[in-house]
TrEMBL record:
Residues 221-411 form the COBRA C-terminal domain. GO terms for cellular component: plasma membrane; side of membrane. This is COBRA-like protein. The keyword Membrane applies. It comes from the Eukaryota. The lineage of its organism: Eukaryota, Viridiplantae, Streptophyta, Embryophyta, Tracheophyta. It is found in: Cell membrane. Residues 1-25 form the signal peptide.
């Protein structure tokens, strides 16, 4: 008995040490995806240094949408910020110990946000002033970074005396990101515009931040319904996919779309509804409809419906996993790119809106829908539309996995 007790205790200790916590996340579709914050010391000053801080989004399909990012940290000593370009701290803090010139921020734990578009040029640097919005690496790589510059005082003035900030936090609409400690890395090298000269930072440290859906949302944010042209049966979004209604009320706020209090186009919210009242209570619904089944091709219509009265989804995207993407032929109404992953087969694709056409999914109402169509070629040796194969395995909206109907509810396809 004593041997069994010791063995059981040892097993429990091993499991506790090796199990993952709820905040850790691994995304098989984007295993190397992360946000890296690079802190480049560009010059020394009499009482500190000038640094450029850049937030790089290395995630393939997850982006930071409005109202944008905010970056916080805790100074190691008694550092202050004398001035900033391309960003600002949300509070100045207590600067009473200074006489004469007053620092821009004296906060022990400052929070920095991006400046808004239209900021005067003398307050801008490269990659700034987008309101904190950062695109995903695949969707728009030219806008997948955001930068600001700050002059730090009461700090070290050499690479041996400067102290690295602690407790770095990246907050985004969600939230969902956890940042590791800052690590000193090889100084960043910069290529001049004419590509004839290379300069480098005096000192560089990196901070890596990873995303966890467990931290980002208490409940799912989207669901999928399935239908077919030759079957009256529809597989709806599962009941309570994102929340539940109880006795004509809800655990989360919702509004009846026929209510006179529903805001019209261009109106401000009269009350504070969150989502349209539905059986699934999801802010976003994706409808996958098998539209046509030709002899050599088959066509799918996807409808994305915004049921959130408080949100316009800018630069939205879908990630769809389906075994027939090897035979994908055409897309109408969106952009398309195969998503590289650990899989050896091409079974996953990313779809997103066309700029100035349908890249903004408006809030709930008449204009809160986006339609797109996909055309696939049939390969009878590897694919059949029967037994649910015409429907996707997984769908992500803006990087978050959507709730799928149970397999036994899928419509039958002839």
């Amino acid at each position: 008995m004593s041997f069994l007790s010791k063995s059981t205790l040892l097993l429990l200790i091993v499991l506790c040490c090796t199990s993952f916590t709820s905040t850790e996340a691994y995304d098989a579709l984007d295993p190397n995806g992360n946000i890296t914050i690079k802190w480049d010391v560009m010059a020394w000053t009499p009482d500190g240094y000038v640094a450029v801080v850049t937030i790089y989004n290395y995630q393939q399909y997850r982006h930071i949408e409005a109202p944008g990012w905010s970056l916080g940290w805790t100074w190691a000593e008694h550092e202050v910020i004398w001035n900033m370009v391309g960003g600002l701290t949300t509070e100045q803090g207590d600067c009473s110990r200074f006489q004469g010139e007053i620092p821009f921020s004296c906060q022990k734990s400052p929070t920095v946000v991006d400046l808004l578009p239209g900021t005067p040029y003398n307050q801008q640097i490269a990659n700034c002033c987008k309101g904190g919005v950062i695109s995903s690496r695949m969707q728009d790589p030219s806008n997948a970074a955001s930068s600001f510059q700050l002059s730090v005082g009461s700090a070290g003035t050499t690479n041996k005396t400067v102290k690295i900030p602690k407790n770095i936090t990246l907050n985004t609409p969600g939230p969902g990101y956890t940042c590791g400690p800052a690590k000193i890395v090889r100084p960043t090298r910069f290529l001049s515009a004419d590509k004839r000269r290379v300069t480098q930072a005096l000192m560089t440290w990196n901070i890596k931040c990873t995303y966890s859906p467990f931290l980002a949302h208490k409940a799912p944010t989207c669901c999928v319904s399935l239908s077919s042209f030759n079957n009256k049966t529809i597989a709806p979004c599962p009941t309570c996919s994102c929340g539940c209604r109880r006795n004509n009320t809800v655990s989360r706020g919702c509004v009846d779309p026929k209510s006179p209090h529903v805001p019209g186009p261009g109106q401000k919210n009269i009350i504070t509804p969150l989502v349209q009242c539905t059986s699934h209570m999801c802010p976003v619904k994706i409808q996958w409809h098998l539209k046509l089944n030709y002899k050599h091709y088959w066509r799918v219509k996807i409808t994305i419906t915004n049921l959130n009265y408080h949100m316009n989804y800018t630069h939205w995207n879908l990630v769809v996993q389906h075994p027939n993407f090897d035979n994908f032929t055409q897309v109408v109404g969106s952009k398309y790119k195969a998503l590289t992953s650990l899989s050896t087969t091409n079974d996953t694709a990313m779809l997103w809106g066309i700029k100035h056409y349908n890249d903004v999914l408006m809030q709930a109402g008449r204009y809160g829908k986006v339609h797109l169509e996909l055309l696939f070629r049939k390969d009878k040796a590897t694919f059949t539309s029967k037994k649910g194969w015409a429907f996707p395995q997984r769908i992500y909206f803006n990087g978050d996995s959507c709730v799928m109907p149970p397999p036994d509810a899928y419509p039958l396809v002839a």
